[in-house]
Amino acid sequence: MADHPTSVLFCCDHNAVRSPMAEGMMKKFYGQEIYVQSAGVYNDMEIDGFSIAVCEEIGIELARHRSRSFDEMQDWGDDLAAFDLVVALSPASQRRALELTRYFHLEVEYWPVLDPTGLGEARDEKLKSYRETRDQIRARMLERFGPPTVPPAGTTT
Length: 157
Hints:
- This protein has a four-stranded parallel beta sheet with strand order 2-1-3-4, with helices on both faces.
- By secondary structure, the protein is of the alpha/beta class.
- The model has no long low-confidence stretch (mean pLDDT 88).
- It contains five helices and four strands; from the N terminus they run E-H-E-H-H-E-H-E-H.
């Protein structure tokens, strides 16, 4: 993974659906090789229950995730300039990430990913939309960073 970034920040609108999914997958797939965090443009929502459910289906635990915004990260002492790559998963977060490039040397990538909130009425329909989002993120991640480097639980190396 020498040609990959050493640190990645995933961002979306509220840090409640898409960016926590991406953070969880990145940690699960690549372990300690890449430092990863996530943030939202706003922090006005808790982690979404449907995000938790569809990530549990693939062995990723999100229930303890605490949503945070770019501003909170800076207030808490996180150095946004320390990230090699910012991956924006929504148009608003892409704009915010590009604003940061005026002050910090950051590489920004935009991965347009479905926002599943508000789609479907029945639980099964909602879960289908969230799975689609999860699978879009996973496909982009594997395309960008390659196959997972952490063996699945229960296997030996």
